[in-house]
Specification:
Blueprint lengths: L1 E8 L5 E8 L4 H5 L3 H45 L8 H34 L7 H45 L6 H53 L1
Antiparallel strand pairs: 1-2
Helix pairs in contact: 2-4, 2-5, 3-4
C-alpha cells in the first residue's frame, strides 16, 4: 500500500509531483482496528466494571468491620489505662466467692471450737472467757482474710482494665487494616480501567490513521495549488 505524503498539481489540475512511501505493516494500522482488538476492548471494559463493583463491595465490608471495631474499642480507650476491667457480673461473682469462702472458713473454725469445748465440759455449758476470746480472734481473722481477698480482687480488676486499655488501643491503631482488601481491589480496578482506556485509545488512533494520512496529503497539495494559483495571478 502506497501512502501519499505530498502531491503537486499544475494550474490545469494535472498531477506533476507525488511523494510518499510503501506501507508494509499490519493492515489494521492502515484501515482501522481489527475485530480482535475491538473484542478485547469490550472485554476489558466489562472486566473493569466488574472490578469496580468488587472494589465497592470490599469497601462496604471493610467499613462495616472498621465501624464495629471503632464502636467497641473507643469507649475503652476513652476511659484511660486506670479503668476497672471486670464487668459487673464478673466482679459480683468474684466478690461473692471471696465472701462465701471466708464465711464458711470462719463458721467451720468456730464450730470446731464449740465441739472441742463440748467434749471437755459436756453438752450444756456457758462459754468461758477463753472461748469468747478464741471466737473473737477467729472473727478478726475472717474479717482480715475477707478484706485481703476483696483487695486482691480490686487490684486484679484494675490490672484487667489496664490490659483492656492497651489491647483496645492496639486494635484501634490497626483497625484501618480492614481497608487493605478494598485498597487492593481499587488498585486492580484502576489497572483494569487503564488497560481498557489504552486499548480504546489505540483503536481510536488506528481508526483515524487513514484520515491523518489523507489530510496531510491534501494539506500539502492545497499549499502547492494555492502557490501555483497565486503565481498565475
Amino acid at each position: 500500500m502506497f501512502i501519499i505524503t505530498k502531491i503537486v498539481f499544475d494550474n490545469l489540475g494535472r498531477e506533476i509531483e507525488r511523494e510518499g512511501y510503501e506501507y508494509f505493516g499490519p493492515l489494521a494500522l492502515g484501515c482501522g482496528a481489527s475485530s480482535q482488538q475491538e473484542s478485547l476492548e469490550a472485554s476489558q471494559a466489562a472486566y473493569y466494571q466488574t472490578l469496580q463493583q468488587n472494589a465497592q463491595q470490599e469497601f462496604g465490608q471493610a467499613s462495616s468491620v472498621f465501624n464495629d471495631i471503632y464502636q467497641a474499642m473507643s469507649p475503652i480507650v476513652a476511659a484511660g489505662p486506670n479503668q476497672l476491667g471486670y464487668s459487673a457480673g464478673e466482679l459480683a461473682t468474684l466478690d461473692n466467692a471471696a465472701l462465701t469462702g471466708t464465711s464458711q472458713a470462719y463458721t467451720g473454725a468456730a464450730q470446731s471450737v464449740r465441739q472441742q469445748e463440748a467434749a471437755a465440759g459436756g453438752s450444756n455449758f456457758v462459754p468461758s472467757g477463753a472461748t469468747l476470746q478464741i471466737n473473737s480472734q477467729l472473727a478478726g481473722q475472717a474479717a482480715a482474710q475477707e478484706g485481703s481477698e476483696l483487695n486482691q480482687i480490686q487490684q486484679a480488676d484494675y490490672q484487667q482494665g489496664s490490659q483492656n486499655y492497651w489491647q483496645a488501643s492496639g486494635d484501634l491503631a490497626s483497625a484501618t487494616g480492614a481497608y487493605n482488601p478494598a485498597t487492593s481491589a481499587a488498585g486492580e480496578a484502576n489497572t483494569g480501567g487503564a488497560d481498557a482506556a489504552n486499548t480504546a485509545n489505540q483503536i481510536a488512533q488506528e481508526n483515524n490513521s487513514w484520515m491523518q494520512a489523507v489530510s496531510g496529503a491534501i494539506g500539502g497539495a492545497g499549499s502547492v495549488i494555492g502557490g501555483a494559483l497565486s503565481r498565475q495571478k
